[in-house]
Amino acid sequence: MNFESLVLDLPIFKSAIVSLDVAFTGVIWGWFVTMNLWGKSIGTGVFFVGLYMLKKYPKNAGFYKAIIPIVGILFILITLMFTALDLHQMFRAWHMFIYPHFTSVINLGSWVINLYMGSLAVLFFLLYKQKDDWYEKALWPTAVFAFFTTIYTAGLLAQCTAREIWQGPTEVVQMLMAAGMAGSAILLLLGHFSLNRDEKTSLSYVLGFTTLLSFTIYMSELYLAPFKSEEAEWVIHYVLHGDLSTMFWAAMVIGYILPMIFVLICHKSSGQLGLTIAAVTSLIGLWMAKHVWLVAPQMIPLS
């Protein structure tokens, strides 16, 4: 018996299962990951925008103090659920916490998103116990976890060095702008009866600014990315002229152009109908834009 046969007879090799023995050329990260990105944007955005509104309008503090942990927990749970469903070995996910590997962005992200979830749970507990002073103090460490929860997926995408348009530092800004869009949209929808005119106006400014900046980055990427490499040119060509082009331009119109128009029309009067339409369309368009930007680079062959 040679050495190779001896090694292969070991129990660890006998119990091994072949899960992938050929190159997979299709889309690996699909709409489950899009739901992760979308839910995370809402779960962190409602914290950032809610914190801003809480400090600016302390007279309505009760509304924001309740919305921040409740909505945050709900959408972070959605994020974690779709993350778990997308894992090929979801029941081994606990290994990331028992045997951490901090050179991996996904491992770091798993830690920060769970720390953020725990911080939101603490805020909810303090809200229930009516510990306002402790609630205020707990907001700041929660803000740190929320920030890294928002941007960690930009680092995860950047590690995929063969996937063009995922590598740009602009993805960090896009993650933050998505949080601003989603957070302001959710607060406009949930504050239908609870917010006054000034508060709705402030939220419309946040929605308009983040939407405009995010839209500008997308348009800049469409123009500048093809200069970077031939592969990036293929991706942009696919976004503009391929199977995803209809969804992409629908996302730009529904999620970016329409909200900006409605914000311009309604921000002074704080017209509820117009701002509601802007909030709903921005959430729909955000999901569509994230999906296209996620899937398109995976449609290009790596060799």
Q: How are the secondary structure elements laid out?
A:
Layout: H1 3-8, H2 11-14, H3 31-56, H4 61-86, H5 95-98, H6 105-128, H7 132-158, H8 170-190, H9 197-224, H10 230-241, H11 245-266, H12 272-295
Features:
303 residues; mainly alpha; Formate dehydrogenase/DMSO reductase fold; 12 helices; 0% strand; flat
Offer a concise description of the structure.
With 303 residues, the protein is mainly alpha-helical.
Note the beta-strand portion. Answer: under 5%
Tally of DSSP β-strands: 0
What is the end-to-end distance?
40 Å
Question: In the CATH scheme, what's the topology name?
Answer: Formate dehydrogenase/DMSO reductase fold
Number of domains: 1
- Shape, principal axes of CA atoms: flat
| Class inferred from helices and paired strands | mainly alpha
Q: What's the assembly state of these chains?
A: single chain
CATH class: Mainly Alpha
The whole-angstrom Rg is 22 Å
Written account of the structure:
The chain has about 300 residues and is mainly alpha-helical. It has a single domain (about 30-295), classed as Formate dehydrogenase/DMSO reductase fold, CATH 1.20.1630. The chain is about 75% helix and about 0% strand. It is built from twelve helices and no strands. It has helices at about 5-10, 10-15, 30-55, 60-85, 95-100, 105-130, 130-160, 170-190, 195-225, 230-240, 245-265, 270-295. Helix 3 (about 30-55) packs antiparallel against helix 4 (about 60-85), helix 3 packs antiparallel against helix 7 and helix 9 (about 195-225) packs antiparallel against helix 11 (about 245-265). It is flat, with a radius of gyration of 22 Å. The two termini are about 40 Å apart. About 40% of the residues are buried.
